[in-house]
Amino acid sequence: LVLIMNISQHISSLLSRSLLEVNGVCNTILSVSSNIIDNPCDSDARRLPLKKLNSNNDAIECLREVGFILESNCLILPASESISKVQELRDELLANKLSLMYELRDNGTGSKIKNNQQKSNYLQRQFESIKYGSNIRFKEDNFYRKLSSTAEFVLVYEDKSLQRKALTVIPVNDLIDEAKKRCEIDSKLDERHGVLLELLSWFNKRFFSWVNSPKCDVCGGKTVSSSALQATSDELRWGGNRVEGYWCDKCQYQTRFPRYNHPEKLLETRSGRCGEWANCFTLCCRAMGYESRYTLDWTDHVWTEVWSETQSRWLHCDPCENVCDKPLLYESGWGKKLSYIIAFTFDEIVDVTFRYTSQVNEVLERRTHCREEWLRSAIRRLNFNRQCSLSEGRLLELECRYAMELVGMLSNSGVGEGLGGRNSGSQEWRRARGELGSNVTVNDAHYEFKPTSQELSVRCIHIRYNPSLDVYQRLSDGQTDLNGWRSATYRCRGIQHKTERDWEMVYLARIENIDKSLISWKVNTNDTEFTIDCINVRVYSETFSDGVVRWELINNDGRSVSVSSSTSESLITSEFRYCNAVELVAHLSGGQGSVAWQQTQLFRQHLTDKTSFPFELTVKLIPKKR
């Protein structure tokens, strides 16, 4: 709020002069802001020569307020600064500039706009000029080319020989076996959905790897980004039009990182960033018989949507994050400022933006690449060309699905709370893109285990957690499941779910660069006629170097009991008899160096271990005293 107020103050001062006098400076700020937002990792986009601002102090202060620093007659936005501040500046300046249109004189003749209708028409023209730009036709041509080329590209997933090749690397039988185990644990889960979750988990944890910077081809050591390289004929054959160069100081050697765009090649390289991940995963989904969409986010991300036959809806699946059906992750978790999200299949293109947002008006304001009616018309035209050879039955099926999809998007009631920032990619890269999320360190869900009628009848609450499945089982309530490690926590400060690909292990740990963190689970019987009798706790944690994990049980009065960590032994205590609430807390701290965060681990187990539960909490209940 303070940031917005300061920005507004500087903008007001800037626009206190004649708009015609400062129009060029305003357009420069709007242009550089948009360029940074569209290209967050481009260092050139973050550099603005002072001469372009005509030495306007108010304009300079606007940019300094959002993080720009003065350096050699240039204003530079450091990579460590989040682009969310730049977004605030652009939106605020655009809104203020638009409001001044009411005070402009018509056609520059000096005569005022005479009536409300003229004012409205004039304002509409000015609004479209500001929002879409004077080059809207050029922007729409580019937009259409992107729609058209992506629509053609996704046809590759229908290549039966390519699908068969994908099946040779997918452990189909293992996935089915694991899905059956998952379905035994969660009776509400159908096997087809279970296989999808296992495919997603396998792809994320065991098959594909994220590349921040490739290892040196000579020594295997670290490299740093150097320059773009010319693609070879073989790289071009696999869609590697863009090749990044990375320099090794030790070997004085430049390693090539071609950004391959063909899923067949990606089955071999098994590495890349979000584009490569979604590309290859969409092929794997089609190979497994799932109807799948390649889903493109105009703010630089891409993922897959998969049709669920049992639920009759499209499920959001992000292989980079190992996340299924959490569409508000990007807006509420990462903090992305969404604009356009378009989904592509071999027979359909759909604008699915509004499945992924709860801030419709804000998103509409950011949709400046094309006019809305133009976009609807362009998609209809492409779909007509694609669907003209489809059967009447298939056309009717697509029409019914789309109608249900629209209803779902219009009544979007998804929950965005408790969704953390981005996990894939280096921290510096995520920070530069503004995708760490606003709730990186504090994700308090304030979830409380309150006894159900079934648990009151058996006078017991029994919970356990498996990090490989990432699921809580509430055994005392008919094996009711809670998906996601954060979903059942009471407090959560600086914790993440971490997968080690090299060691094939999974656990909870501190977020990078967080010195101290905690996580807790709470049982509360206040609203019942029962209270706590005794507690049985079994938890497992592991530390390295001088990392410290301290466990304790505490009640609302501050009374606490220490809990030891062991896979085989548990703590049984009646210390909290007749208390109405108790909280199990883990405090993580210590460690050495840049990997200190990784030297305190909770519930560490192998990726394939679906049967062990390194966290188990049982609370016996007794009637309250009269």
Give the topology, please.
Layout: H1 2-14, H2 19-38, E1 47-49, H3 57-65, E2 69-71, E3 74-76, H4 83-99, H5 116-132, H6 136-153, H7 160-167, H8 172-185, H9 191-207, E4 209-210, E5 224-229, H10 233-237, E6 243-248, E7 253-258, H11 263-269, E8 271-272, H12 274-287, E9 292-297, E10 301-308, E11 313-318, E12 323-324, H13 329-334, E13 341-345, E14 348-351, H14 360-366, H15 372-387, H16 392-410, H17 427-432, E15 448-449, H18 453-458, E16 460-466, E17 471-474, E18 480-483, E19 491-493, E20 495-500, E21 505-510, E22 517-524, E23 530-539, E24 541-543, E25 547-554, E26 560-563, E27 571-573, E28 581-590, E29 600-606, E30 615-623
Parallel strand pairs: 4-8, 15-22
Antiparallel strand pairs: 1-3, 2-3, 5-6, 6-7, 9-10, 9-13, 10-11, 11-12, 13-14, 16-17, 16-30, 17-18, 19-22, 20-21, 21-29, 22-28, 23-27, 23-30, 24-29, 25-26, 25-28
Helix pairs in contact: 1-3, 1-4, 2-4, 6-15, 7-12, 8-9, 11-12
Which structural class best describes the helix and strand composition? Answer: alpha+beta
Inertia-based shape: globular
Q: Which percent range fits the helix content?
A: 25-40%
Count of runs of 4 or more consecutive helical residues: 18
- Output the strand order for the largest sheet: 12-11-10-9-13-14
Largest sheet: 6 strands, antiparallel
Q: How much is the radius of gyration in Å? A: 28 Å
Low-confidence segments = 1-5, 101-114
Mean pLDDT over the full residue set: 84
Strand segment count: 30
